[in-house]
Amino acid sequence: MERDKLQVTRLCQEASARQANGRTATTGDANSCHVSRVAHHHSPAFTLIELLVVIAIIAILAALLLPVLSRGREKARATECASNQRQIMLAVKLYLDDHDGVMVPLWLEQGAAGWASWTYDAATFVVQWPDHLWWQDKLRLDGYAPAPKLYDCPTLTEPATDARGGSVSDTHTLGIGMNYPEYGWLAPAAGFPFPVYTTSKENQISRPDQSIVFADAGQITDPGEANPDNWQEIVATGCAYFRVPSDTDSYSVGDSRSMPRHGGQVNVVFFDGHVQRERNSLIRYDLPRSDGAIQWARNNNGVNP
Predict the structure, then answer these.
(1) 19 lies in which domain range?
(2) Does the residue 141 lie in any domain?
(3) 277: which strand partners?
(4) Strands 212-218 and 257-258, how do they pair?
(5) 39-51 pLDDT, tens per residue?
(6) pTM of this prediction?
(7) Looking at the structure, do residues 37 and 119 belong to the same domain, yes or no?
(8) Neighbours of 130 (CB within 10 A)
(9) Is the CB of residue 127 less than 8 Å from the CB of residue 240?
(10) Same domain flag for 70 and 16
(11) Which of 238, 262, 257 is nearest to 73 (CA)?
(12) Could you give the CA distance from residue 154 to residue 125 in angstroms, rounded to a whole number?
């Protein structure tokens, strides 16, 4: 093929030379040159229709692949969230060992009897409530779990600027909440105007593999929604706690509940340390604490904290 092209080129050059010298090129020479020019002029190329077809195919493939990629990213974030909860629970276990089995408080208020003071730093604190030291910063400052990002759910994208109960932050999304009041207990200063539930202790847990300590948490749009699988999260309300029915004063408010934000499921970690992703309804908020099927209480003795 290459030799044929060279032959045609040579013939064209000879024909041009003869024409320049006043001689007439042979018919074969002229035809060969003409064919060569035509072949060169009509080199293969995409037509407009072909290009449009290719673009349409690419658009269809992108539409099919993007949801798959999105689901893959969300699955990775849910897995990272579960890992965060597992590490937090390990840190709590270490805290329990060092404090005679007493659970880390949900928060401490500056000046609370029996507790040392601290220096608040808005730039480094996970929860930004100056007079209160939340469980995240207590574990962080005491060295049990020092990494600040550990306390954020990776699925959330907005900082917790609109969270309730003082669990606010403009640098962290939060969204991993402690079970209140079954595990989260308060250490307020004198004069605190709200009920203070009893201190949570390790020896009060009757079934460690059936009792949730931490879960995805946030404010729900409709506190009257009876089905926990249908709870919808309000943006920027990732919370450091979630209320359960034993909080008889404020559970109905809905300012923070366990949140099924991972493909319709919620990440939870139990007192024995195992983590699972499950339907929110399996926690069984509809049943009393005396029922053995519930996951929201530390025991089934029928007595609220």
Answers:
(1) 2-41
(2) yes
(3) 267
(4) antiparallel
(5) 444 556 778 888 8
(6) 0.79
(7) no
(8) 10
(9) yes
(10) no
(11) 262
(12) 18
